[in-house]
Design goal:
With 405 residues, the protein is of the alpha/beta class. The chain has one domain: Alpha-Beta Barrel (TIM Barrel). 40% of the residues lie in helices and 16% in strands. It contains 14 helices and 13 strands. The strands form three sheets. It has an eight-stranded parallel beta barrel with strand order 1-2-3-4-5-7-10-11, surrounded by eight helices. Strands 6-8-9 form a three-stranded mixed sheet, covered by helices on one side. A hairpin with a 6-residue loop joins strand 12 and strand 13. The longest helix is centred in the middle third of the chain and has 21 residues. The radius of gyration is 20 Å and the shape is globular. The two termini are 24 Å apart.
């Protein structure tokens, strides 16, 4: 395809982060409690601690993104900070996140807010989490209390990030508490009560936002890993494996947009899901290096919920070699470009992640466009940051890497 394919002028071009992964000292959250609980220690090889100290250094982070030419920034607000105890809302924390919204606008960055990015207040988790009788109502109450943050200068809100992964972690946690080890804890399954509650919570959040701020476009993001049938398995096996994932995609039908989050693909044999094949290139997370994942995932979602605009809310690679990051992202964006050319309604692209951060148990997987010194918190932009910012600025998706160094 021609490298002069032009993006729409209003196409979103940004990077994503999550509060717990970059802010630091999120001591009232369930994930802070999980990190220090002694459970799932195979997962928590590092504690989040100060993370990237972005709670205090968000201005510097935004300055860097804007300086490289990004026009959009997706970040989350932390429920555990805003409501550290049931019904006790912090005006100071609401004002803090409001300042972030205003700071983004001042720098020419359009903010997309995520209301729930994997973490909840510790008290919410202790009273049953998403399985408690009043979970949906409590989430709706939080969204309403947080309204001053997004009342103006916010055009898009993601209610819940990767609800399918939230439901999967709930299943893993139950299995581990029942005495199974991490490796045999049913990681391929989703917890059904959590699934039901998350869909209801999303709907409740949409109702609250539309009633208070009808100008905001609301959606949620789903992790998409397309299943490839191998070793004699037919496509029915792949369809069966993807069924639970598709529940969350189909729940977005009628929303103003859906977020696609794609990194790799998965394999299914006659007996179920398979590991990455021997000899395949892998990333620091152990996932297969597979740039076409993005284009495949976009087309899967477009088929499942036709007519619902798509925003790529996460796509990236855990890699210490930045030239590989550029090559991977270039390949991924070719898939996006081809889908656009074929008429798929794609409204934007956010790279994961703006910063090397806390990847839910370890600092080793480095997804960031910007490195962060773990002791001094000095930000060190990588060549990929300038390359990707320039790619968006050109609006032509000329994906050559000649200007990456």
């Amino acid at each position: 395809m021609s490298p002069t394919f032009h993006l729409p002028d209003d196409f979103l071009w940004g990077a994503s982060t999550a509060a717990h992964q970059i802010e630091g000292m999120n001591v009232n959250s369930d994930f802070w409690a999980h990190e220090h609980s002694g459970l799932l220690q195979e997962r928590f090889t590092d504690m989040s601690g100060d993370a990237c100290d972005s709670y205090h250094r968000w201005r510097e982070d935004m300055d860097l993104l804007a300086g490289f030419g990004f026009t959009d920034y997706r970040f989350s607000i932390e429920w555990a900070r805003i409501e550290p105890a049931p019904g006790e809302f912090s005006n100071a924390e609401i004002a803090h996140y409001r300042r972030m919204v205003e700071g983004a606008i001042e720098r020419g960055l359009r903010p997309m807010l995520t209301l729930h990015h994997f973490t909840v207040p510790r008290w919410f988790d202790e009273q049953g989490g998403w399985e408690s009788e009043n979970a949906v109502g409590l989430f709706g109450r939080f969204v309403e209390a947080a309204a001053p943050i997004f009342a103006s200068n916010v055009d898009r809100i993601c209610t819940i990030n990767e609800p399918n992964m939230v439901a999967r972690f709930a299943a893993v946690r139950k299995a581990v508490l029942a005495g199974n080890d991490w490796e045999n804890s049913g990681t391929g399954g989703y917890d059904e009560p959590t699934t039901v509650a998350l869909i209801k919570a999303h709907r409740r959040a949409v109702e609250v936002i539309r009633s208070l701020t009808p100008h905001i476009q609301v959606g949620w993001s789903v992790a998409i890993a397309n299943y490839h049938a191998v070793d004699g398995a037919d496509m029915k096996a792949a369809e069966l494996a993807s069924r639970t994932r598709d529940i969350f995609v189909l729940a977005a039908a009628g929303d103003q947009w859906i977020g696609v989050q794609a990194y790799t693909r998965a394999f299914v044999g006659p007996e179920g899901q398979l590991p990455v094949p021997e000899g395949a290139q892998k990333t620091l997370t152990g996932w297969e290096y597979y740039p076409p994942a993005l284009g495949e995932s976009i087309r899967t979602v477009a088929r499942l919920v036709p007519g619902t605009p798509i925003i790529v809310t996460e796509n990236g690679i855990a890699e210490s070699d930045d030239t590989r990051r550029i090559a991977y992202t270039s390949g991924a964006l070719q898939g996006l470009r081809d889908a656009l050319a074929d008429g798929v309604d794609i409204r934007g692209y956010y790279h994961w992640s703006a910063l090397d951060n806390y990847e839910w148990g370890s600092y080793l997987p480095t997804f960031g466009l910007i490195a962060v010194d773990r002791k001094t918190f000095e930000r060190k932009p990588k060549p990929s940051a300038a390359w990707l910012g320039a790619a968006g600025q050109s609006r032509s998706l000329d994906l050559s890497s000649e200007n990456a160094n």
